[in-house]
Amino acid sequence: MEEEQEEGRREKGEMEEEQEEGRREKGEMEEEQEEGRREKGEMEEEQEEGRREKGEMEEERREKGEMVVQSHQVNAFTEKSLLWGLLFRIGTL
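User: That's the sequence. What structure does it adopt?
Assistant: C-alpha cells below.
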C-alpha cells in the first residue's frame, strides 16, 4: 500500500512538472507572438514613413514642374512680345 502511495506521489510530481513545462512553453510562445506583433508594428511604421516621404518627393516634383511650366510660359510670352514689337517696328519704318 505504501508503494502504491509512493507511486501515486511520483506520478503526481511528474504531472506537475509536465504542467509547469507546458506553462513555460506557453509563456515562451506568447513572448514570441508579442515580438512578432512588435516587429510587424515597426515595419508598418517604416512603410508609413516611406509613403510619407514618397508623397513629399512627389509634391516637390510637382512644384518644380509647375515652376518650369510657368518659366516656359513667361519665356514664350516674352518671345512673342519681342517678335510683335520687332514686326511693329519694321512695319513703321
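The mean pLDDT is 88.
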